[in-house]
């Protein structure tokens, strides 16, 4: 395990930033937090833009190295600071492949769908019309009740959604 030079994690308040904070805690790393939020203007400052031209959070500074994207941060931290007793990424090829599969599912499917639902203004006509089929009735009831959030998905999935 390498010794952290000077770890600074930029960003708080989103599921994406929580991933990086969680990984750092799991690895027992000491780090500084810069608590900036998304869509607040804080990512558009000259200081932050110089570090991350994409102006997104999270961003990890590890000495003179910077990396963005939560899954990439977690993978880099694990590869750099894991020990045999405390690793976030499995070593055996098939376990590693399963880990990658879940990572890609989370960032490509789960994140994009949840962001679409959370940011979509107004009623969800296309989803509601799809929900008129009997198979989708648990979803229709959930949408009608205003339950668009990710935290209601496990119960909907268990109900056959």
Structure description:
The chain is globular, with a radius of gyration of 19 Å. It is built from seven helices and four strands, in the order βαβαββααααα. Helices cover 48% and strands 9% of the residues. Helix 1 (15-26) runs parallel beside helix 3. With 161 residues, the protein is of the alpha+beta class. It has three domains: 7-81, Glutaredoxin, CATH 3.40.30.10; 90-119; 124-161, no CATH class. A hairpin with a 2-residue loop joins strand 3 (59-62) and strand 4 (65-68). The N and C termini lie far apart (44 Å). Mean pLDDT is 77; it is low at 127-161.
Name a few traits of the molecule:
161 residues, Glutaredoxin, 3 domains, four-stranded mixed β-sheet, 4 strands, 48% helix, disordered C terminus
The CATH architecture name of the largest domain reads 3-Layer(aba) Sandwich
Q: Helical element count?
A: 7
Which term fits the overall shape?
globular
Beta strand count: 4
